[in-house]
Amino acid sequence: MKKIITTAMTVATLFMATGCSDSLDVTSPSVVDKDFVFSDVQSARSALYYGYQTLQNARSLHSVGFYWCPVWGSDIEDAQDTYSDGSAGCQEKTFYPGGTENYNINSGEGTEVFGQMYNTIAVCNSLINAFEEKSDFQQIMTGEPNEMSDIYGQAVALRATCYWELFKWYGDVPHALKTGEKAEGLTSRFAIADYHIQKLREVEPHMFRVGESGHRADVMNRTYVQGLIGRLCLYNAGYTTRRTDLGADFYVDGDGNQLTFDDWSVEKNKAIYGRRSDWRNIYQIAKEYLQAAVQNHGSIELHLTDPRTNDANGREYGNPFQYCFQQMHCGVTDGLADESVYEIPMEYNNGADRPAYIGRPSRGGNGDAPCVGCGQDRVQAWFYYGAFNPQDLRRDASITVTGSDGQGHEDIQSFNRSNWGCGAGPATNKWDWNRLPAPNTNSYGTSGINVSYMRISDIYLMLAEVEAALGDDGAAKSTLAIVHNRNYVGGVDSNFDQFIADCGSVWDAVIQERAFEFVGEGVRRFDLIRTGKLPQAAVENRKEMTRIIDEVVANGYAKFANGNELPAYIWTKMVDARTQYGYRLTGQCPVGKEDDPVLYPSWRGQHDDWGSLYPKVMGATATNVAIKGLFKHIVPGSAEAIALEADGYEQKPWAVDMDSYRDSYATKLLAGYSDADYAAKNPPIYLLPFTYNTLTTSKITNGYGFRQEQ
Q1: Secondary structure of 412-431 in HEC code, one letter for each residue
Q2: In angstroms, what CA-CA distances link 575 with 363, 466, 502, 562, 646?
Q3: What distance in Å separates the CA atoms of residue 663 and residue 674, rounded to the nearest whole number?
């Protein structure tokens, strides 16, 4: 599937001949000769792969553009950039603090994705309709899965995926299902979701699981469809901000029945926040298919232990969670992560954007060691220091306080937001140039790191969430424990029950577990929205970050319930890790070595041999950062500080820098949903507006207070 582009070329020209523009002035292209295209399995699969290629090429959807919105705009993830009232990006990510009526509807990032999704939908419609017109269609869709029924099911799943992305981002959108049908007019998002859930239920029995008939997770498969049904149900039945200017009868279900809602908010901006009253019925559907996925997911594997052992240099692993992300660093190979239910394969040397934007930062440029890593996704201090249990193996595999300088050296980060590339605090650690077996140093967009679109842990946690919401706490707790406990040494968290108690309920614990599992992956923002937690989270987040900064200024550090201290200053020095340890790129810190300033926190350092790839740094020796005082306050000028400085350590500003950027770190986090909005129970506006070009070509209007003109 890494050869997806060349595989699809024989059929792509058929679609390109009736190609689609980036605006919504599009129709589903016709397959010139469906009897030729579907004359055998290979030609049908090639036509499908062209649809996959369009999804892969929609970079702003899964790696850049408006994908940054969910990564930046939650109560966990934050931005690299300094907050600016005039920035379109800040407006989107912080819920339009300047007011939707003042927002330039053409200024957002990734606006091309709207048209791109309809391009992919158009390809899928052509495939689906052509299949359904075949004389032997009913025979194909009878009995056990076969190659043609599976290809048809993949097309249905790909189309449903695109519509999920569209109504997640935009709310109500045009719903085109037929070849040649123009995508125009608005359809109730709930009717759209109901339709595709039912369609997926029809094709699910006729699809292969990963491992069956040679199928891999680089195509949509039966387990993905089961998970997608669950995902669609959670969004369909979850909280959402909907329009009130479309008429009382606009919001209907898939059968055309008018819906009723349990609303949390009052009406403002001709919008209201709530969920459909029949949500429990939809959750029952989700439960059925998520249970089926958990019971039999083919060769997809949730690793409960790390299959890696110590390597020849003595580096330790022992972290099954990190192993999943290491497998995505396949580079020139066509490898996939064992835990991926569906993974988007990215071409080496062809637009693989992680970690160029989302991942471990680097101050390098093209041709450096490594190339630039913007570090757009930063993790708020309270989450890294206070929320994570220090024993949770996901913390260091997900979040890092160091990056790269681009010259073969590890680079300490800072909270100085003006220090681009190494400022704004802890960053995502799931994707790192240094962990590629043969990093390409030619260009920052060529890593070859895949994008996992759905992981099996997501299916487990969606199931636990549904079980808890439906009142079965016992089942939910057991399902939750599978994901939670595998992230602790020995596979058991002795404080699991206390974790649930601290969260307040099993359901709340599942939502918090999702935060730990998916930090940096663009999930938290939408989890907050669909669970109804967003309004309160916005208020509490600002309050907590303000407390932290105030304590750092007053006391020199902020203290957290788990025992961690966030200090104003830390002490660092560069060391020769290869000589001292036998390697530069560290793994899991061995138990009992948490005082080692190079090995703890885990999963950092540098590529073991940048010099072989980038001769300019061949002679580098002091390549790794040793850190003291990261989690325990050391008083500047104290005997301990003086001893460290005598040993070559330098005092560096750490949390003290947050006070200079208080707006960015605290007071204007999620600024568009204020304390006053929460008190008044106003609806949060998180959806994106349609651009003027879309409005003029699609017979639709903007809602939520957005302008109708440029």
Answers
A1: ECCCCCCCCCCCCCCEECCC
A2: 19, 49, 40, 30, 15
A3: 13
- Indicate whether 224 pLDDT > 60: yes
- Cα–Cα–Cα angle for 654, 655, 657, nearest 5°? 85
Burial of 235 (0-12, 13-18, 19+ CB in 10 A): buried
- Phi then psi for residue 465, to 5 deg, are -65, -45
For residue 242, give the H/E element and its range: strand 240-243
pLDDT of residue 36: 53
Cα–chain-centroid distance for residue 435?
19
User: Among 74-83, 289-298, 492-501, 623-632, whose mean pLDDT is lowest?
Assistant: 74-83
How far is it between the farthest Cα atoms of the chain?
Answer: 85
Under DSSP, is residue 575 helix (H, G, I), strand (E, B) or coil?
A: strand
Provide the total of helices (H) and of strands (E) in the chain, helices listed first: 27, 16
Q: Are 538 and 93 in contact (CB under 8 A)?
A: no
Instruction: Give CA–CA dist 312/502, Å, rounded.
Output: 42
Q: What are phi and psi of 579, to 5 degrees?
A: -70, -40
How is residue 458 written in tokens? 């997501």
Reported for 503-508, long-range contacts at CB under 8 A and 24+ positions apart, including other chains, are 505/468, 505/473, 506/464, 506/468, 506/473, 506/476, 506/477, 506/480, 507/465, 507/468, 507/469, 507/476
Under 8 Å between Cβ of 96 and 673: no
Asked if residues 172 and 185 have their Cβ atoms less than 8 Å apart, the reply is: no
Residue 441 has pLDDT above 90, yes or no: no
Token pair for residue 423?
């400022």
pTM beyond 0.90? yes
Ordered DSSP codes for 670-692: TTTS-HHHHHHTPPP--PPPPPH
In this prediction, residue 682 has a pLDDT band, given cuts at 50, 70 and 90, of very high
Beta strands, E only, 11-150: 77-79
Neighbour-count burial for 423-434, b at 16+ CB within 10 Å, e otherwise: bbbbbbbbbbbb
Locate the DSSP E strands across 12-139.
77-79
Distance separating alpha carbons of residues 548 and 265, to the nearest angstrom:
30
On whether the CB atoms of residues 451 and 62 are closer than 8 A, the answer is yes
- Taking the C-alpha atoms of residue 623 and residue 595, their distance in angstroms, rounded to an integer, is 19
DSSP assigned state of 387: I
